[in-house]
Design brief:
This protein is mainly α and 201 residues long. The chain contains five helices and no strands. It has one domain. The longest helix is centred in the C-terminal third of the chain and has 48 residues.
């Protein structure tokens, strides 16, 4: 019988959520480290492309690079902050739902941070170079809706407003999803308490 219960510690850890919380927290930390490495790689690519442009484009690309690396550092911090949130979750009857709530907040914050950075940096880039800034961003540009701004002052301003509104909508939607999952936990707890009261009566 002892031989058949060798897996019990693992099941106990899964049952109280330790394994899941630790695994998700570690995954977020790894993603944070990878986002920093990927950000540095993309920064080099932005700088390479910027120096192939005329002087105004090079200056615009340098300013876009400064804003972008600040956004990458912020994204890295978001990953590690939310990893700590997951790790610090106490024992509960519900393990996965609170984690999903944190993940929704995490990815909403990341998308909004990058969106604002692209909007501000792209606006400045358009004003200086008159070019579309999304082609400088390589693969990360595919995460945002395609947009072909005009190379004018108004075009740059509209580019900024568009990405600011997009970022706002995204973070509101993801925070709504995060709060909705918490509400599900509260509903489940209340239902369980009602059922226990009925049984006790």
């Amino acid at each position: 019988m002892i031989v058949l219960s060798f897996f019990k510690p693992v099941l106990d850890a899964l049952n109280d959520g330790k394994v899941i919380r630790s695994s998700v927290s570690l995954a977020l930390q790894i993603l944070g480290a990878l986002s920093l490495v990927g950000g540095v790689y993309l920064l080099v690519e932005i700088l390479k492309a910027s120096f192939e442009l005329p002087t105004e484009g090079t200056v615009g690309g340098l300013l876009l690079s400064v804003i972008f690396i600040a956004a990458v550092l912020a994204v890295t911090q978001i990953f590690f902050y939310r990893a700590a949130n997951v790790r610090d979750q106490g024992e509960s009857q519900f393990t996965v739902i609170p984690i999903f709530s944190i993940l929704f907040r995490c990815f909403g914050e990341i998308y909004a941070t990058l969106g604002i950075a692209v909007g501000v940096g792209g606006c400045i880039f358009i004003w200086l170079s008159k070019y579309d800034p999304l082609y400088l961003l390589g693969g990360i540009g595919h995460f945002f809706p395609s947009l072909s701004p005009e190379g004018t002052f108004l075009g740059g301003l509209l580019f900024l407003v568009y990405f600011a509104l997009l970022s706002f909508v995204i973070i509101v939607v993801f925070y709504f999803l995060a709060e909705s999952t918490v509400v599900l936990v509260d509903i489940a707890k209340n239902i369980r308490q009602l059922l226990q009261k009925e049984r006790n009566q």
